[in-house]
Amino acid sequence: MKGFILRKVLLLVPLLFGITLTTFALTKALPGDPAVNMVGERSRPEIIAKMRKEIGADKGVVRQYAGYVLLLLQGEMGRSYYTNRNVLDDIRIKFPNTLRLALGAMAMAIPPGMILGLFAAMRKGGWADRTISVFSISLLSIPVFWSGLMLMLLFGLVLKLLPPSGTGGLRYMLLPALTLSLPALGTIARVTRVSVLEVADMPFIRTARAKGISDCRVNGIHVMKNALIPVVTVIGLDFASYLNGAVLTETIFGWDGIGRFMMEGIIKRDYPVIMGCIIVGTSLFVFTNLAVDILYHYLDPRMRIYETER
Amino acid sequence: MSGILRNRAGRFGVICGVFAVFLFIPSCSSRNRIEGYLYYRLNADPTTLDPALVTDVTGGGITAKLFNGLVKLDPHLNVVPDIAERWEAREGGRYFLFHLKRGITFVNGREVTARDVQYSFTRILDPKGRSPNSWVLERISGAREFMSGAAKEVAGIEVVDRYTVRISLARPFSPFLNLLTMTAAYIVPKEAVERWGADFGDHPVGTGPFVMGRWDRNGELVLERNDRYFDGRARVRGIVYRVIPEELTTVTEFETGNLDVLSIPAYEYSRYRRSPVWNGLISSAKGLNTYYLGFNCSRPPFNDIRLRQAAACAIDRRKILDTFLERRGRLAEGPVPDLLRKWRIFHGYRYDPAKAGRIVREAGAVNRRIYFYVTSDQEVVDIAEIIQSYLKKAGLDVRIRQLEWSAYKTALNRGQADMFWISWWADYPDPENFLFPLFHSSNHGAGGNRAWYTNKEVDRLIEAGQTETNAVERLRYYGDAENIIVRDLPLVCFWHRTDYTLHQPSVKNYRIYPVYSIDKGMEVSF
Questions:
Q1: Which terminal residue of chain B has fewer beta carbons within 10 Å of its beta carbon, N or C?
Q2: Which residue of B has its CA nearest to A264?
């Protein structure tokens, strides 16, 4: 197990290097001049040139990249062109908000998603199965900018129960987390259903039933545990993407997270912000997948045997 | 589930859960505000609140409530005293003597003196600084020498005594007092600027009716009332600016009562107009702006005036204004907004599609391909498509090219577009602010003259207007210049937009102004 984790972590080094290179190249390929954006086009050319020098845009691209990598190796991500604030500090402030939102969304999506998927599988072909299928496909298909606005209108304007937007405690988190949870709920329900049906036909389940174990125990323990691997994968992917910031949800609800921070960076051509968000986001994605891989080992003994044999 | 209910601990858990939900729901409310504070919306945080560095309208509107200049604009766009008690213009507008009011203090308690004026203006021009607003004060005598490093101080800013400052200009510039109403000319205390350094924009210290409270980026920016403000006391306890990027969210927040003022989005305008509840609460202000279709006059096809005339005749601007914009603007006769024009336009253009088609045929430009540059803003794209269809009827093959804002500006500044859609908003309320940047040949490209228009007579008239101190004569120069421009058609002016806002019934004395710096937040109340 330790070897497995070590191998995975070592693989991250070239991966993260590749990410910095790609992100840097893409950022440089964006149209527009951040120096002009910052000081306004009516500024004198000397001021624009000075600003370019200040943000290092007067150097060659290779030197700029080398400088950035050096900065990263020192544990820094530079300062925002606009606010002059340390990007890493800003990410540290905004990331807990994004994490809270992602956890909230997952908490709202996983239990009902799995229960609905299991229930649909148990009633395969029946009206309940069909209803759940339609429901989960609907949740998957509705774009968050629509569902978010509808929830905001309902709970904020009509029922006057929750604040329509803002960043804060549970009151503020409920609507964006619910919005974000809906497509995940749909996905989890569908994947659970398919996975449960696949496992339910396995000989070891028939054996369990033949041994006289109750339906509840067979479905709840034997089937669910074995059906979890694809579900965990989906949850991991969704969670990782939420950690990168749900740009639309955070923008609609004015939630001060990584997604909105990055979006504003892109609009303003604030390169250190864009780079910082992408690097942190991608690293989180990679680490979440690593965590999912590790989780497989606990869920599926075959994985452990496979790794030991290797 | 039934298992849970049979279990004693489970039953207890369910009861607790239901109880918690019932406790939670009544404590929830969509209302979210502190009483006595006025709630506005910002679509993004201002970049900075340092007057030397502010270039955006958002930052300008807030700094206007935190700082004061020597002079300011009144609601009728006249220049009136602010920190200066009075001023004298001498030698035909070559220099100004400003007498400061006594006893005005910064919010740190120190009195404002002539030295602060000298420091604040010099700071804008300082070559070691990075103020993008140096153009506002560069007409002061000695400013260019100071900016180039050839002089150690600005010769044209002299402290006469503790309360008098003398400002000399390199040559008379008639809108100079208007320039002094701008954000860049606000007075700042040296000790606070030096204390905070680059972070002064986060910790602004001024003389205004409000002081900086707190600023949670991407959240709220709170201004508290300055009870020691020299010009009276604001009627609200403070102002909260909430950063809400999404327009539909803003509308919901407004209707929930969490915002006091809403800048009405285009798609909501007719709904609020029709609503008996909201219609009476709509305020409007004629904006000092001009939306126009520009042509690149420096190269084919639009170096041929006939094609510019054809385009002007081909488009029914009135129809677009009445239908697409639902009359939220005034039809433009020329580049200078109606609020500032005191003369007649003699050669205006009329919608005449038959004439447009005839001119295109005579010019041999049927099916001529034209690249029309626009930003990716949806409203702009819609207008571009309307223009495209009108020009198609006249026989021109218009291809729309959508670009991201800064890429679009770069393309225009390099003269890459045949035709483009853009607007110009006044920095200060004077016709010169429209004529000089947009049409003087020294401003080709980034300076504002993106039509690359050159006319020596227009240059001469604009320059004459800049130095003329006799108001009647000045207006004559500007009127003559605008009439030549309208005849030459480097651009077709469409309209001057009117701004519409909606406020809550509880908000009293609310009004909007054509220039953001006029609003100091003093009159509005609950």
A1: N
A2: B44
